[in-house]
Amino acid sequence: MSTFPAQHSYASAEALTAANLNTHPQGISWLTSARPLLLAHQASATISIPNTTWTAITYDTVDSDSESGLNASTGRYTFNQMGWYFLSGSINFAGNATGIRAMHWKTNYATIIGLECSPAAVVPPGTSNPALNTSLNMGTLIGAKSGDWVQMEGYQNSGGALSTATNFANNRAESSFFSITWIGGQTSSV
Fold this sequence. Notes:
The protein has 190 residues and is mainly beta. The protein has one helix at 18-21; strands at residues 37-41, 48-49, 55-56, 61-65, 70-71, 76-78, 83-93, 100-107, 112-119, 134-144, 149-156, 162-163, 177-184. The chain has one domain (37-184): Jelly Rolls. Helix content is 2%, strand content 39%. The strands form 3 sheets. Strands 3, 5, 6, 8, 9 and 11 form a 6-stranded antiparallel sheet that branches. A 5-stranded antiparallel sheet has the order 4-1-13-7-10, with no helix packed on it. Strands 2-12 form a two-stranded antiparallel ribbon. The radius of gyration is 20 Å and the shape is elongated.
């Protein structure tokens, strides 16, 4: 787990000076190094999302998890330190022209954060191709304490189970992914 140096306590209207910044053991280099970071995606293993059921998205490839916070079997990320984080994610649903697709962030404190919703992609006019994949993308800022968790969930109502999909053909990189970047600061509540 990364640790951050104690910060200088500034008085009201005190100027930010090099001398004050130099009181940090590592200067201000901690602002650009050792930031908690997660990047995970579905490279080949997809999951089935049941009809009308919010389902946690899981990932078969972890590109980076500097704090070891991701539980690969649940798709849940547990924060190891307090702060502000930027969450970004995408769910790529397999082609089907029926119903809607949705995603949101679920947390341990019973709060649903954000909602992205779209009708299913349809067959392009003048073609006999099957329905196109539907991809939803969302990002948000969250305040978290050590021990808090978040996971991305997907929903669909096509009338039956529908899988996530990957498409790496023709230099495309369409897959479900989840990323978290520590922005900074600390928060005593969320």
